[in-house]
Design goal:
The structure holds two protein chains of two kinds. Chain A has helices at 4-27, 37-41, 43-53, 77-86, 92-96, 127-140, 159-170, 191-194, 200-206, 219-227, 264-275; strands spanning 33-34, 68-71, 147-152, 176-182, 185-186, 189-190, 210-215, 236-241, 260-261. Chain A is of the alpha/beta class. The two termini of chain A are 31 Å apart. In chain B, helix 2 (16-27) crosses helix 8, helix 4 packs parallel to helix 6 (97-106) and helix 9 packs across helix 13 (310-320). In chain B, 39% of the residues lie in helices and 19% in strands. The chains are: A alpha/beta, B alpha/beta.
């Protein structure tokens, strides 16, 4: 039997590698601005998914029974690409070619099944609806795969998120997981200032979801929130309290890192902080 | 889908919406494992109540939430279900337009959209429920195919053709109950291939939807006055049939496009975009809604006021030949 501590350590390592890949890729854009804050806030969630839960690898990633992942907050793409690199679906060279000429890795995911990118995302508020389609398909075909969708708290401003939130419990999709990255910021400011999100826990509960609220940087809490038995017929919403820019002193809770340029000095600082 | 005397007459009486429901009830027979029908609280309006009862597992009602409906339809289609989504045209097209762009067109996921009661048939309900913009808008989306059937038989043919086509497709349904019959016999329907219904050399009447029957009636009256129009059914607006347009621009001096749609962006525009590049001297006259929300009211009244009836077609032909 695998000791849970081993699993947690494995995910933690995966997570550190993802952080490193994100800042390396951002730095190698040679002075281009990149979405860094929102990529860093979901690193621990992504690492739990790609490092343990999804069980997707270079051999099985096109199988019909693979687990599905949708990055509805498509701008956090640096985290997504880093994970695909770490499981061997894209090479480091391809990763570092991000947003350069002839790349297939753009500032928002562009569907590329050969590289494990399941859907094109970037226009907010659409991913959960797609996820419902995938989950319904699994139910209709008696397949066991699960669908995981990461949504931003700013993204929850979009009305279409709530159309989807309303529908998933109706269709009894206990194979669907919506993970809400509650980092309390959106593009130009704090949620509180731009559009208050009030209690996301209460909202998702009232819409009929089985809701867990967790520390989105505590690997054990993330893992438990996904693995605890689902309530029959209920989709699960995980409200993950996170820190935008998590992992580096100069990016944490500093919303200028929503989309910003990583200088060489900052990059070297970040490397030092990662080593500590 | 074979046409016969019985179904042609029945469908015409019921109108294009109920015909859609009946076509789906036929279609499901061979592909029950693959077919999913999505609606947005409009099962009755789409003639799908029998389908809903008989095939509950193939039926997904998303409630009055069309944006979500498109995402769900795309998710199912990406898992290789054959998916049709239908509701009233404004809500099946414009309300969820960006979802259509991203989920269907950008990712090239083959969902079939069916716009119910398009054009002016719901004039009594006001222009919130009419649709004179849908072809223009859907046509501007890369990867989207746009079809406007001429009668109920063609509606059924279009549904069957779209199910096999495996591309994002929009089918626009026009006309009310007692929908005029254009095709009295079975015929070959192919997406992207226009059909010449009447041969004459004085003018090419290029039309689709309900305007095909009106053009045919007008042409027959014109024949009695020694004016001989050809009538072309351009049931597919995108991809437009370039071969037939090339033929028309070489062989006629006058083309009149007739559509139950705004003259901006619809069939007339699609035709002129091509023929203007042929270097021919053909003149084009655009008949359609003249870029306005004219009046609400009874269907026939609106058509008359808009200038979409047999008399106006005859007048335009005589003024221009």
């Amino acid at each position: 039997m695998i000791n849970q501590n081993d699993t947690l350590n494995k995910i933690k390592k995966f997570s550190n590698a993802t952080r490193l890949n994100i800042i390396e890729t951002a730095f190698k854009t040679n002075g281009k601005s990149a979405h860094i804050g929102g990529a860093l806030s979901i690193v621990d969630i992504l690492a739990t998914l790609y490092g343990h839960i999804l069980k997707i690898n270079a051999k099985n990633y096109k199988n019909n029974d693979r687990n599905r992942f949708i990055l509805s907050k498509g701008h956090s793409v640096l985290g997504y690409y880093s994970c695909l690199c770490q499981i061997g679906l894209i090479t480091k060279k391809e990763l570092h070619n991000y947003e350069k000429p002839n790349t297939f890795l753009f500032g928002h995911p562009v569907k590329n099944r050969d590289k494990g990118i399941e859907f094109s995302n970037g226009s907010l508020g659409m991913g959960l609806s797609l996820g419902i389609g995938l989950s319904l398909a699994a139910k209709k075909r008696n397949m066991n795969y699960k669908t995981y969708v990461i949504i931003g708290d700013g993204e929850c401003n979009e009305g279409s998120v709530w159309e989807a939130a309303m529908a998933a419990p109706k269709f009894k999709l206990d194979n669907l997981f919506a993970i809400i990255d509650k980092n309390n910021f959106q593009q130009t400011g704090a949620n509180e200032e731009i559009m208050p999100s009030l209690s996301l826990v209460n909202k998702w509960k009232e819409f009929g979801w089985d809701v867990k609220e967790i520390d989105g940087h505590n690997i054990k809490e993330i893992l438990d929130s996904i693995q605890q038995n689902v309530k029959p017929d209920k989709p699960r919403a995980i409200i993950a309290n996170t820190i935008k820019g998590k992992g580096f002193s100069f990016t944490e809770n500093n919303n200028s890192w929503h989309h910003n340029i990583l200088t060489e000095k900052m990059y070297l600082n970040a490397l030092n902080e990662l080593r500590e | 889908m074979e046409l016969n005397e019985k179904n042609i007459s029945l469908w015409s009486k019921l109108g294009s919406r109920a015909t859609y429901g009946l076509a789906i009830l036929e279609l499901v027979k061979n592909i029950e494992e693959q077919l999913i029908i999505v609606t947005a609280d409009t099962s009755t309006s789409a003639g799908l109540d029998r389908f809903k009862k008989k095939y509950p597992n193939n039926y997904v009602d998303v409630g009055i939430a069309e944006q979500n409906g498109i995402g769900i339809a795309a998710g199912l289609a990406s898992e290789n279900f054959i998916v049709f989504s239908s509701t009233f045209t404004p809500f099946q097209t414009l309300r969820c337009l960006e979802q259509i762009k991203v989920n269907l067109c950008y990712m090239n996921i083959p969902v079939n959209l069916v716009g119910l009661a398009s054009g002016l048939v719901l004039g009594d309900l006001g222009y919130t429920h009419c649709s004179i913009e849908d072809i223009a808008v859907m046509r501007a989306l890369p990867n989207m195919t746009v079809i406007s059937p001429a009668d109920c038989g063609e509606t059924s043919k279009a549904v069957f053709a779209a199910a096999k086509y495996n591309k994002p497709t929009y089918i626009r349904l026009t006309g009310g109950t007692n929908n005029e019959i254009v095709y009295k016999n079975n015929y070959n329907f192919e997406i992207g291939k226009a059909i010449k219904l009447l041969s004459g050399e004085d003018v090419a009447l290029v039309c689709n939807g309900t305007m095909v029957a009106k053009a045919m009636n007008a042409a027959k009256q014109l024949n009695q006055q020694d004016i001989y129009p050809s009538v072309y059914n351009f049931h597919t607006i995108k991809p437009i049939d370039i071969k037939t347009l090339n033929f028309i621009s070489k062989n006629y001096k006058l083309i009149i496009t007739i559509e139950e749609h705004n003259i901006i962006g619809g069939l007339g525009s699609a035709v002129s975009e091509k023929i203007v590049q042929n270097g021919s001297n053909i003149k084009q006259v655009f008949m359609g809604v003249k870029d306005n929300y004219l009046i609400s009211g009874n269907y026939e009244t609106i058509l008359d006021k808009t200038g979409l009836n047999e008399d106006k077609i005859i007048k335009e032909v005589k003024n221009n030949v």
